Amino acid sequence: MASITTIDSLEDNLSTPTEGVVRTLAELNGDLLVVGAGGKMGPSLSHMAVRAIRQAGGNQRVLAVSRFSDQKVADQLEAWGVETIHGDLLEPDFIQSLPQVPNVVYMAGRKFGTDGAESLTWATNAYLPALVCDHFRTSQIVAFSTGNVYPFMPTDGTGSLETDALNPQGEYGMSCLGRERMLEYFSRKHETPMAIIRLNYATELRYGVLVDLAQKVFRQEEIPLSVGAFNVIWQADANAYTLCTLNHVQSPPFVLNVTGPDLIRCRDVVERFGELMNKTVRFTGSELPVALHSCSERAFDLYGKPLTQLDEMVEMTADWVMRGGTSHDKSTHFEVADGRY
Description:
The protein has one domain: Rossmann fold (3-Layer(aba) Sandwich), CATH 3.40.50. It is 40% helix and 16% strand. Strands 3-2-1-4-5-7-12 form a 7-stranded parallel β-sheet, sandwiched between helices. It has a two-stranded antiparallel ribbon with strand order 6-15. Strands 8-11 form a two-stranded parallel sheet. Helix 3 links the parallel strand 1 and strand 2. The radius of gyration is 19 Å and the shape is globular.
């Protein structure tokens, strides 16, 4: 993959649809609405959907719903051909005002800031999905969840499977399990076809575990090893898997792990960043024998392996950080090992 040096080239990369996405959206009946589209992944996923529909020769609309606290995000979406709807998703009257569409991607969620504001996290992650599912009972819904609903798994194993028992650690993980239970309840009650995406973790050049680690290496800060291993997937691949899942919704919900094929040792990737940046690396603490990591073989069987490999992500991230590329300035808190965010 060629080096990405500008925001425009990054946005182009993150929103380029795969052949599978184009085929899926060519068969899409009706418009697509993305709930919670103002976050880190929502804009590129919405843009990818528009590009796929156009490439397939379709005329379905893509609508993006969010508070859009940053108006620049809404303006960019509109420039890409995405129609934006502004409002507070926790207001039931606003949810009831949303247009009925056949296809919904649900992306809303809250993680960071949970510790000390647990009730808001539960409202966002469990109450809001209930409002959305009830309003869109006749639609099909692909909803984001997280690998945090799983327990920590041994780092010498294959990771959690979709069929494994769920045992989240901490209020955030528990609230995400609450979200899944609400999705399942309304799917069964209204026979709403759904898919649940258990994602961990999407990364691009402005945000993600790799960005956090690269920035620490570049600033020559100590790297904590409390979480010694993790999964990542390039955001474009995560977007593609999510949109392809519109063809696999069912009631009760179809569940899919979405992450990369590699369990990444923090120590290894940090040392690689040190080599690329010509920086000395320093560690603190020691690796635990367990980590949150998932097995995505089901996704690979359905849609193929991710197009962007780990070494490409690492090299692009190192180059971006050394160039002083734009960052979202939001830490992933990858080092948290007790589930408190």
